[in-house]
Amino acid sequence: MISVNDFKTGLTIEVDNGIWRVLEFQHVKPGKGAAFVRSKLRNLRNGAIQEKTFRAGEKVGKAQIDNRRMQYLYASGDSHVFMDTETYDQTELPEANLTHELKFLKENMEVHIQSYQGETLGVELPNTVTLEVTETEPGIKGDTAQGATKAATVETGYTLNVPLFVNQGDLLIINTTDGSYVSRG
């Protein structure tokens, strides 16, 4: 058990028969009444985000999540195959569990597969990925004052807004958390 006073971003806990990751938390000490902890949690089984308030000092279960380094191999129907880089064991995950991750996954990419007591929860991507632009309109020099963007599609089929100087064939570094452009690769 762990006290909610010891919350940290990224901590995994068991609450209401679910496995949750702490995304944000805030300790609140009102002038009148008892202190409490306001938190934002992500359900690791279905990806739902929920805001939850705990009384200060309340105890919750700590969930031990196992991370295995695996390599993404290929899509097989409506599932995707990953291979353990040490034992060469293969694991299939349904496409429904990978809706966000598929925007950034390409073949032979190394990721971490998260599991809890033998149950596979999902894929943890690196913070950024480098992907090639497959389609975008050419940028015209001097047609804006500052900060203009255009749409670009990368090799995984994901479309994002990029600065005008990005061209087809460029490598882009993309933030996997929110899918935003970081820089050219």
Automatic annotation (TrEMBL):
Gene Ontology BP annotations: peptide biosynthetic process
Query: Which SMART domains is this protein grouped with?
Result: EFP, Elong-fact-P_C
Q: Which residues form the Elongation factor P C-terminal domain?
A: 129-184
Pathway as given in its UniProt record: Protein biosynthesis; polypeptide chain elongation
Q: Which Gene3D superfamilies match?
A: 2.30.30.30, Nucleic acid-binding proteins
Localization per record: Cytoplasm
Checking InterPro entries in the record gives: Elong-fact-P_C, NA-bd_OB-fold, Rib_uL2_dom2, Transl_elong_fac_P/YeiP, Transl_elong_KOW-like, Transl_elong_P/YeiP_cen, Transl_elong_P/YeiP_CS, Transl_elongation_fac_P
Q: Does the keyword Transmembrane helix apply?
A: no
Entry GO terms, CC: cytosol
From the UniProt record, which GO molecular function terms apply?
translation elongation factor activity
Keyword annotations: Cytoplasm, Elongation factor, Protein biosynthesis
Q: Which residues form the Translation elongation factor P/YeiP central domain?
A: 67-121
The record's family statement is: Belongs to the elongation factor P family.
HAMAP family according to UniProt = EF_P
Sum up the protein's function in the record's words: Involved in peptide bond synthesis. Stimulates efficient translation and peptide-bond synthesis on native or reconstituted 70S ribosomes in vitro. Probably functions indirectly by altering the affinity of the ribosome for aminoacyl-tRNA, thus increasing their reactivity as acceptors for peptidyl transferase.
- What this protein is called in its record is Elongation factor P
The species is: Macrococcus carouselicus
